[in-house]
């Protein structure tokens, strides 16, 4: 076991994880009507395609948007590399499209370049930002606040969760799914309850490893991507995310007893197949940890939610608490991980 770190464990990241339930409650109360208005505008606009513009954790949030819009509305969503405009000077041929940019700071040159290019080509431009006075907000037809309050810790936590809440609220109005919006009101309590559940078995397994696989499918896949990114940032674990549907197309060769596997399995239509894949992975000798509200499946439990979207959001909030604790066991100062900056400006 690595030695205990010399820095205090009352980290900024830990404080901000604790603030997530309050952030969600404030966000829904303060910005819920705005999100609903945007949902109605999208319904009237009836886009034929949506382009997402994001990097890092924000790109994981964009993948969550892609899942909801494609599954619930049948509108194709493509994540386009921002370098298309900032490096290669190319623009897209888009008609009746939506360009949706997601960013904490709204400052990155490449994000702004592609978003502006899409807007100039005729796309309705929407930004979801935690800095309402940023360039990205100014370069958008519709600028939406993430509403995560100031986020000072280098690893994004509150801003990612609140991005998912905003996306779910907008999609709920766009589709007319009142139950989805109502489930967001119950989310703060769901997250609070998830924090009280024991994930110690995964914490111990991950503390002694150098790499891990994070699997997910459906709503669970974007959560798996964000979870893998957080393990890299906070514990220097080489974690990679894969769709559970892709495991037997190559990643299965990486399975060993020394490499833990975590499956993110919210209770949607994809969960049965994803859990079956996890069982096959376990049969190959891997240590498999299933995140689920099904107590018969889960060794990393979360409370039951009224739908898989709220459940998936609660899962990443609980994973953040695991990552913060794990960083101490790995001897990492989670508030100042090496080589990283809070605001990343990419050309």
Could you explain how this protein is built, in words?
This protein has 347 residues and is an alpha/beta fold. The chain folds into two domains: 12-185, Glucose-6-phosphate isomerase like protein, domain 1 (Rossmann fold); 190-329, Rossmann fold. Helix content is 47%, strand content 14%. The protein has 13 helices and ten strands. The protein has helices at 12-18, 20-45, 57-73, 83-86, 109-120, 135-138, 158-175, 178-185, 187-195, 200-207, 220-235, 271-283, 308-329, and strands spanning 49-53, 77-79, 97-103, 124-129, 142-145, 211-216, 238-243, 261-264, 288-292, 300-301. The chain has a five-stranded parallel beta sheet with strand order 2-1-3-4-5, with helices on both faces. Strand 4, helix 6 and strand 5 form a beta-alpha-beta unit. Helix 9 (187-195) packs parallel to helix 13. The longest helix has 26 residues, at 20-45. The protein starts with 11 loop residues before the first helix and ends in an 18-residue tail after the last helix.
